[in-house]
Structure formats: structure tokens, C-alpha cells
Amino acid sequence: REAALFTHRGLSGPAILQVSSYWRHGEAIGIDFLPDCDDDWLLAAKRAAPRTSPRRTLAQHLPDRLAETLAERLALPPELGAATDKALTAAQGRLADWPFHPNGSEGYAKAEVTVGGVSTAGLSSRTMEAKAVPGLHFVGEAVDVTGWLGGYNFQWAWASGRAAGEAV
Questions:
Q1: Three-state SS at 103
Q2: Do the beta carbons of residue 120 and residue 145 sit within 8 Å?
Q3: Which letter does DSSP use for residue 112 in this model?
Q4: How far apart are CA 77 and CA 151, in angstroms?
Q5: Are 71 and 152 found together in one domain?
């Protein structure tokens, strides 16, 4: 439900940054363009206004240029009333899980957070000290803890840093 941006370099924005923590190269990601619409919203639109174009219907929920592009790619008839219910149901399904195949990321230079690090299983949760090497402490992103975007990673860095600092 976060914002996504289509840029000259590809997809960006909070939603994409969030997904990037889980995405692996070669995998597809699916975008739900209309998460707040009912399962049969397009069929209901057909019954309410059969002469309306798919683009105009999408533009009620999405920016005009995005609505126009998605309508073209869905290849529906010029009016909703001319589309079969099966075709509209398929279009709804595609809009709810539109596949994208990213070809990469901006890498660590543009990363908001990193994923991975020293396993928490090997650390004291009270002091952040390595169980196998007394006196060695790990904090923040050096540990395999990754929070939801929005300051949680900062909170983890500060809290783990304080725990280690107080321990030493």
C-alpha cells in the first residue's frame, strides 16, 4: 500500500524499497495496482457504465498516464460492455498481481539498508557480545536484523549500540 514510482531508471519509492529487502535477482515481483478494490470491481463497473472505456475506469483509481498504459496492455475492447466477464475477470487478476521482472538494483551505493550480517544466534541478546569470542560486540547492520523501512533500522542500531556500549 506504499507509494511506487516509475522513473527513467526503473521502479522506485517506498513500496519498491520494501520489496527489495526480499527480492532476489531473477525473481519476478507482483504489484497490486488496486489493493482497495473489491474482487469484482471491474465487473461492477461494466454493469454500472457499460459504455465507459477501460482507461477511463482505471483513471478513476490511478494516475491518467498509468491508467492509459495499463489499459493498452490489458488489450480490452474500447468499451467495458463489449468485454466478456471472463476477460474482465482476467484483467482484474492481472491488475491485482502485475508481474515485473527487475533486471537488477542500484546496489549498495544507493541502498537504504543492508540485509544479512552476523547471526543473532551467535550473540548475547543482552550485550550483543559474540558468544564464541568474548569482548567482541556487533551492533546495527553488522547483525542479521533488518526492520521495516521507516526508522526501525535506526532504532535497532541505537538500541543494539546502547546494549553493547553499556556492556563494555
A1: coil
A2: yes
A3: S
A4: 46
A5: no
Residues 132 and 93 in one domain: no
* Contact assessment for residue 80 and residue 58, using Cβ atoms and an 8 Å cutoff: no
pLDDT tens digits, one per residue of 29-43: 999 999 999 889 999
Residue 105 lies in a domain: no
What nine digits make up the cell of 57? 475506469
Say if residues 149 and 22 touch (Cβ distance below 8 Å): no
Q: 52 is in which domain, residue-wise?
A: 5-100
What is the C-alpha separation between 30 and 33, in angstroms, rounded? 9
Residues 12 and 78 in one domain: yes
Residues 86-107 pLDDT 10s: 999 999 999 999 999 988 888 7
